[in-house]
């Protein structure tokens, strides 16, 4: 039961008394309202932080058909033009959409100024901790672009996809102190740009892939060739080389003997034969070899046993090639073997019985089924090996 006495509200009940003056009552409501507002703002901030933390990409399209800027980070993603305190951008991807003008790093920086009316930014000073930069559909044919990459002192990975990389555009990139990996994916390039890349002092990974399919009315796209491999003699620390849909011959693979540091080699070329597979046999630390060619099954794969340190081998016959595999002699050091699109008989499989260190044998694209006599013989000879059948 409550009574009003000299401006004091009294509430009596349950053995206790609570007295609140009207101004204190109003103060309590105000405090509660403020607390709820603060709590809601804090919750909104937390949710926004959570959303940002779980974002992978943030795209900011610049005015006037300029490129899309993508900042990639493994953790917290910030707005590029916001407060940079405590944030790191470790990878940047420049994606030029249709009808986009040729752009260099400086040109992209001027796009920032046009949209945000701030002083021209130098991307290298904005994002000094960048480790990976990639481009898609850009014409990198302006002299001096290579110098811009040198200014990113921590940059270790550089990727080009469907780009034009010609002549002296990558000049002086060999001055970079940390760059280790370069990828050219379906690019138009030339040997001059490849020579600059091969001179990068700490380059340990190079990937060159050409488009798989070309229309009949189109000219053959640029791809790695024997000249490319000859130019790699300057890459003293190259460990990983992947050549997809290239025009390398057996002679080109033989030139890789100059790259004594090579540990992994992948070559997909219609001109490589069984003799070409043996070409890099003099590489002292080669561990992984994957070769795809049209004539791998021409019956001349003898001599593979001479590889000193080979652990993984993949032989893949390209379409319309010969598919007979005979006189197969493999190194005893193999731990993984993959044979694709090759016809194998019991006699041709017998050398595999001696590979006591083999852990994985992939025969999924051959005619050897799990119920065949050859399969039973393999299982008995290699009890510790995982064998994959069609």
In percent terms, what proportion of residues is strand?
A: 15-25%
What is the second-level CATH architecture of the domain at 204-213 and 220-390?
A: Alpha-Beta Horseshoe
How large is the radius of gyration? 32 Å
Mean pLDDT across every amino acid position:
71
Could you state the CATH homologous superfamily of the domain at 204-213 and 220-390?
Ribonuclease Inhibitor
The number of E-state strands comes to 21
CATH class of the domain at 204-213 and 220-390: Alpha Beta
Give the strand order of the largest sheet, numbering strands 1, 2, ... along the chain: 4-5-6-7-8-10-12-13-14-15-17-19-20-21
Overall morphology: globular
Q: Which residues form runs of ≥5 with pLDDT under 50?
A: 1-20, 52-87, 98-121
Number of helices: 10
Based on helices, strands and strand pairing, what is the structural class?
alpha/beta
Fraction of residues in H or I helices: 10-25%
Biggest sheet layout: 14 strands, mixed
Q: What is the straight-line distance between the termini?
A: 87 Å
Output the CATH topology of the domain at 204-213 and 220-390. Leucine-rich repeat, LRR (right-handed beta-alpha superhelix)
């Amino acid at each position: 039961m409550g009574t009003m006495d000299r401006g004091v509200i009294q509430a009596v009940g349950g053995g206790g008394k609570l007295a609140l003056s009207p101004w204190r009552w109003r103060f309590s409501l105000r405090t509660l309202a403020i607390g709820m507002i603060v709590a809601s703002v804090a919750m909104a901030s937390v949710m926004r932080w959570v959303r940002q933390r779980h974002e992978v990409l943030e795209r900011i399209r610049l005015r006037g058909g300029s490129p899309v800027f993508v900042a990639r980070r493994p953790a917290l993603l910030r707005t590029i033009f916001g407060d940079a305190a405590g944030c790191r951008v470790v990878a940047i991807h420049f994606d030029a959409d249709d009808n986009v003008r040729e752009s260099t790093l400086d040109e992209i920086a001027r796009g920032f100024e046009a949209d945000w009316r701030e002083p021209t930014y130098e991307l290298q000073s904005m994002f000094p901790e960048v480790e990976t930069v990639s481009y898609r559909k850009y014409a990198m044919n302006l002299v001096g672009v290579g110098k811009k990459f040198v200014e990113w002192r921590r940059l270790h990975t550089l990727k080009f996809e469907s780009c034009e990389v010609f002549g002296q555009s990558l000049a002086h990139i060999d001055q970079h102190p940390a760059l280790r990996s370069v990828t050219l994916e379906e690019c138009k390039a030339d040997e001059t740009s490849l020579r600059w890349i091969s001179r990068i002092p700490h380059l340990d990974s190079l990937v060159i892939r050409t488009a798989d399919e070309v229309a009949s009315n189109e000219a053959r796209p640029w791809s790695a060739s024997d000249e490319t491999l000859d130019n790699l003699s300057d890459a003293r620390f190259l460990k990983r080389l992947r050549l997809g849909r290239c025009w390398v011959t057996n002679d080109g693979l033989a030139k890789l003997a100059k790259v004594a540091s090579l540990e992994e080699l992948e070559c997909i070329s219609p001109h490589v034969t069984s003799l070409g597979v043996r070409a890099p046999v003099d590489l002292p630390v080669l561990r992984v070899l994957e070769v795809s060619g049209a004539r791998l099954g021409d019956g001349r794969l003898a001599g593979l046993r001479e590889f000193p340190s080979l652990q993984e081998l993949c032989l893949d016959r390209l379409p319309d090639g010969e598919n007979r595999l005979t006189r197969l002699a493999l190194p005893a050091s193999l731990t993984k073997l993959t044979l694709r699109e090759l016809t194998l008989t019991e006699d041709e499989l017998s050398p595999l019985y001696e590979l006591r260190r083999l852990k994985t044998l992939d025969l999924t694209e051959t005619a050897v089924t799990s119920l065949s006599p050859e399969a039973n013989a393999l299982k008995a000879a290699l009890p510790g090996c995982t064998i994959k059948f069609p």
